[in-house]
Amino acid sequence: MKPICTMISIRHLSKTFRNPDGSANTVLKDVNCEISKGEVISIIGPSGSGKSTLLRAMNMLEPPDSGEIWLNGENITAPSYPLETMRRKMGMVFQNFNLFENMTVMENITCAPVKLLHLSREQAELQALALLKEVGMAHQADTYPSELSGGQKQRAAIARALAMQPEIILFDEPTSSLDPTMVGEVLSVIRHLAKLGLTMLIVTHEMRFARDVSTRILFMNEGVIYEDGTPDQIFNHPVHSATKAFVNRIQKLVYEIDSDYYDYYQIHTSLGRFCIKYNIADKNDLVFALIKEVLFEHLRSVRPITVRITHAELSGVTSLDIMVADISVSPLDDKARSSLGAQVRQIIEEPTTRGFRVKLIV
Fold first, then answer.
1. Can you give the residue ranges of every domain in the chain?
2. What is the spatial distance between Cα 293 and Cα 290, in angstroms, rounded to a whole number?
3. Are 134 and 159 a contacting pair, CB within 8 Å?
4. SS3 of the chain: helix, strand, coil, percent, to 5
5. Which of the four pLDDT bands, split at 50, 70 and 90, describes residue 4?
6. 6-247, which class in CATH?
């Protein structure tokens, strides 16, 4: 068995910000963590739990108030440690890309290696082209950022971080600024980097991605690391109730429909927002079509009806529940089952304590 090589040691890290009214907001509270070479660590947790601040403290963009960060045996938080040297070793990919708009993709990637690593222009461009091929962007080398999609900008930003040949890369919610249709292309690149053995810390709200790509998960809450373990431990056997509640999040929309005069435009709008927020925009049209079909074709004479859309973030399962009170048998006939069954993955029909539920897994 190969010995574990500790790359980063975080010791008693704390950070407090001052609110406009002068009150204190402590976002990191005595954080301790050891990171080994080759680990892919996803940091998850609710908004405001300190995830992004931890990454920014590690890169000294938000210097900690107390504590130390050691990188390969050197204290990078020491006042005498040169930040330029630290940032060569620890690259960072931001939410909002931070590309130079007046430079082409190639110029964005070659600028720092030429100035800081003292590569020749030819060496830097050869390296940049190889990296752009890795992220599927070689054909956009001479393009300006304003001409790129969000996903392309983020892939270019990843190539730029790799160009400095860092020992570790920090990803601060790399998909949070993207249209849902572009999230997959960026996550695919990060998955590829993980297979290459690059050491990475990733702040993410993509639970399935975190589970699939990571060797280790940190769950942060209230400024501390609540739980630290393998993906199996965190997602399937969490110790703390806060961890369990977070990873098992089920998002939902509920509509109580008592007549045909319900505002269906409002359903369409809120459903669209829901699907975009939870990265299931590809299911929006199907779910809305199913709602209309059930309400106006198969169950036209049945009112009131409760319609509920649920999405389990971890499993990725989206379902449409149609619930009718005070009945004990399914309201669907064979024709309805045949029509709906051709559009969904599964139909589940089951009695409830209040009536009957038809669940359509989409």
1. 6-247, 250-361
2. 5
3. yes
4. 40, 30, 35
5. low
6. alpha beta
User: Taking a C-beta distance cutoff of 8 angstroms, is the pair 293, 360 a contact?
Assistant: no
Closest CA to 53 of 190, 224, 205: 224
Residue from 184, 235, 228 nearest 207 by CA: 235
Helix (H, G, I), strand (E, B) or coil at 6: strand
Q: Is the peptide bond before 304 cis (omega within 30 degrees of 0)?
A: yes
245-302, pLDDT tens digit by residue?
898 888 899 999 998 888 888 899 999 999 988 888 899 999 999 999 999 999 999 9
Encoded tokens for 119 = 């590569």
Q: What is the pLDDT of residue 259?
A: 85
Q: For 98, phi and psi rounded to 5 degrees?
A: 55, 35
The residue among 353, 354, 350 whose CA lies nearest residue 330 is 350
Question: Is there a contact between 222 and 62 (Cβ–Cβ < 8 Å)?
Answer: no
User: In angstroms, how far is CA 243 from the centroid of its own chain?
Assistant: 17
Q: In the 8-state DSSP scheme, what is residue 3?
A: P
Element spanning 207, H or E:
helix 207-213
Average pLDDT, the chain: 91
Is the domain covering 250-361 a CATH 3.30.565.10 domain? yes
Structure token pair of residue 12:
């008693």
CA–CA gap between residue 86 and residue 251 (Å, rounded): 40
The residues, any chain, with a CB within 8 Å of residue 269's CB and separated by 6 or more, are none
pTM of the model: 0.77
Query: Residue 85 belongs to what H/E stretch?
Result: helix 83-89
Structure tokens that stand for 55 in this block: 């990454």
Task: Report how far apart, in Å, the C-alpha atoms of 193 and of each of 44, 96, 169, 258, 302 are.
Answer: 19, 20, 10, 52, 53
What are the angstrom distances between the C-alpha of 189 and each of 55, 230, 233, 305, 329?
20, 22, 25, 44, 49
